[in-house]
Amino acid sequence: MNQKKEKGNEAKNKMSGRGVQKFLLAVTSVYLVVFLVDGDLVWRGLEATGQTLLKILPIILLIFGIMVLSNSFLTPERVRKHFGHEAGWKGWLYAILFGILVAGPPYTLYPMLKQMKEQGLKTNYLAVFLYNRNVKIPLIPVMVYYFGWQFTIVMTILVIIFSIISGVMMEKITGE
Amino acid sequence: MKLKQSIIKAGKSWRQMIPILIGVLLLANLLNEVFQKYYAVIFTGNYLKDTFIGALVGSFSFGMALTSYVIGGEFLQKGVSLLAVTAFVMTWTTVGIAMLPLEAKMLGTKFAIWRNILNFIFAIVISILTVGIINF
Predict the structure, then answer these.
(1) CA A176, CA A127: separation in Å to the nearest integer?
(2) Which among A111, A126, A134 has the least Cβ separation from residue B94?
(3) Residue closest to B76 by CA, chosen among B66, B67, B63, B86
(4) Which residue in A1, A40, A76, A167 is deepest, having the highest Cβ count within 10 Å?
(5) Are A139 and B126 a contacting pair at CB < 8 A?
């Protein structure tokens, strides 16, 4: 039974490996085509990518460290307790706070979230967490500078409310 | 779980993600470079159309939330409606068309597609509510 499952996983990994290769080939093709039309645009795209990678490198290392720690200390039982079916209203609260407080672009957090999902993180809390990435405490003064206090307060409250609606709807849609 | 096992497990997740992340960043940065040229002329002056356009441009753009505030502030100075700018700022962080392949691979295709669709709709609703409330 387990052997069958392992073989299935191997085949799935090979398939997704091929998918990644195809995707990278498609990106390279896009760059080659654009290079023929506008070479300067390609260099700007490559330069911006390099800069983005340099910028996110410390965050990647930080998330890697958190993942190692959470692998060591965060057992599936603990994840299920705080972010699983038995979490209740505390699960919503933790997901909102976690979304607001954790730093870094959402895509750098995907591996950690995938891992937590495998350990029992519910879909609704995952959606709530990702939606609250829009509320960033250190950026509030910047938002106030551009859009004013009233705007910042109203939008922040609405984001938190809609994060919960998003969580409820995502749970219904995905059935998880 | 032992430390060595923990490192190996975390490393496996990143090994899967890094090639896609680089591909997506290459694609997103190329799109960003193209879009930036048209940011100023893309808005029409029509409230409803501009809100939709703002949400759409924000969905395809990506980067730090801070950048969206700065660009949004510039839009406002150029006369783009607050409704459109709010939709733009909202979708910038909550919808990620460029990051969709990465999100689908890591968190599941169904989850990624539906989350982005819902967030796009919510961004427009939140924009209308925010502007409606502060103008009330």
Answers:
(1) 12
(2) A134
(3) B86
(4) A167
(5) no
> How many angstroms from the chain centroid is the CA of residue A41?
28
Give pLDDT, residue A79.
67
**Rounded to whole angstroms, how far apart are CA atoms B112 and A52?**
23
A130 touches chain B (CB under 8 A): yes
Q: Which residues of A82-94 are buried (b: 16+ CB within 10 A; e: fewer)?
A: bbbeebeeebbeb
Q: What is residue A109's predicted lDDT score, i.e. its pLDDT?
A: 83
Distance CA B106, CA A110 (A): 6
Burial class of residue A11 in the structure, from the number of CB atoms within 10 Å of its CB (0-12 exposed, 13-18 middle, 19+ buried):
exposed
- The amino acid present at A2, given as its one-letter code, is N
Tokens of A34: 């654009």
What are the tens digits of pLDDT across the range B19-64?
Answer: 878 887 888 788 778 877 776 677 877 888 889 999 998 998 777 7
Beta carbons within 10 angstroms of residue B2's beta carbon: 9
Token pair, residue A84, equals: 């699983």
